[in-house]
C-alpha cells in the first residue's frame, strides 16, 4: 500500500478550496489535512499539521503565498509546497521555486495535472505545469 499523502490547501477562494477538497478527498492514499484561507493561517496550520504537501495560492492577503512559503520552509524544510495560481507568467513560478517550492500549477490546469503534481512532488520530484513555459 502506498504511503498516505497529507495535503494542506491554502487559498483565499472558498470555491477553489471546496473544488480541491472534492477532487482530492476520494483519492486513495491522499488526505486533506486542513484548509487555510490566507498565508497567516497556512503558516500556523503548517506548524500544527505538518502536512506532506501544501497547495499554496500566491495571491492572498494579508500574507501572500510567497511570504508564507518562505516562512514555512525556513521552519519546516521537509514540507513540500506546490504553487497554485491564476498566473501562468514564468516570473511568478520562478520566484516561488527560488523560495523552495517544488511545483507550480495554474488554477486553469486540468485537475489531473494537479493530482500528478502532488504525487510527483510527494515522491521527491518537482512538477511545473506545461502551460507555464520558461519556469525551470
Summarize the structure.
The chain has 136 residues and is α/β, with parallel strands linked by helices.
Highlighted features:
alpha/beta, single chain, 5 helices, about 40% helix, Rossmann fold, six-stranded parallel beta sheet, about 140 residues
Notes on the protein architecture:
A six-stranded parallel beta sheet has the order 2-1-3-4-5-6, with helices on both faces. Strand 1 (5-10), helix 1 and strand 2 (30-36) form a beta-alpha-beta unit. The chain has helices at 14-24, 39-49, 65-75, 90-98, 111-122, and strands at residues 5-10, 30-36, 53-57, 80-85, 103-106, 127-128. The mean pLDDT is 93. It is globular, with a radius of gyration of 13 Å. It is α/β, with parallel strands linked by helices and 136 residues long. The chain has a single domain (5-128), classed as Rossmann fold (3-Layer(aba) Sandwich).
Distance between the termini: 32 Å
Number of domains: 1
CATH architecture: 3-Layer(aba) Sandwich
Shape: globular
Class in CATH? Alpha Beta
Give, in spatial order, the strands making up the sheet with the most strands. 2-1-3-4-5-6
How many DSSP E strands? 6
Mean pLDDT: 93
The secondary-structure class comes to alpha/beta
CATH superfamily: Response regulator
Count the DSSP helices.
5
Sketch the major β-sheet.
Answer: 6 strands, parallel
Fraction of helical residues? 25-40%
**Rg, alpha carbons:** 13 Å
The helix-strand sequence is: EHEHEHEHEHE
Amino acid at each position: 500500500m502506498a504511503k498516505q499523502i497529507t495535503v494542506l490547501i491554502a487559498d483565499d477562494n472558498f470555491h477553489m478550496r471546496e473544488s480541491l477538497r472534492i477532487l482530492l478527498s476520494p483519492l486513495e492514499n491522499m488526505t486533506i489535512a486542513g484548509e487555510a484561507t490566507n498565508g497567516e493561517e497556512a503558516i500556523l496550520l503548517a506548524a500544527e499539521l505538518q502536512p506532506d504537501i501544501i497547495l499554496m495560492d500566491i495571491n492572498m492577503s494579508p500574507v501572500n503565498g510567497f511570504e508564507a512559503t518562505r516562512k514555512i520552509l525556513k521552519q519546516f524544510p521537509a514540507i513540500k509546497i506546490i504553487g497554485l495560481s491564476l498566473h501562468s507568467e514564468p516570473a511568478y513560478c520562478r520566484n516561488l521555486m527560488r523560495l523552495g517550492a517544488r511545483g507550480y500549477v495554474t488554477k486553469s490546469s486540468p485537475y489531473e495535472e494537479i493530482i500528478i503534481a502532488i504525487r510527483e512532488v510527494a515522491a521527491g520530484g518537482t512538477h511545473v505545469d506545461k502551460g507555464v513555459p520558461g519556469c525551470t
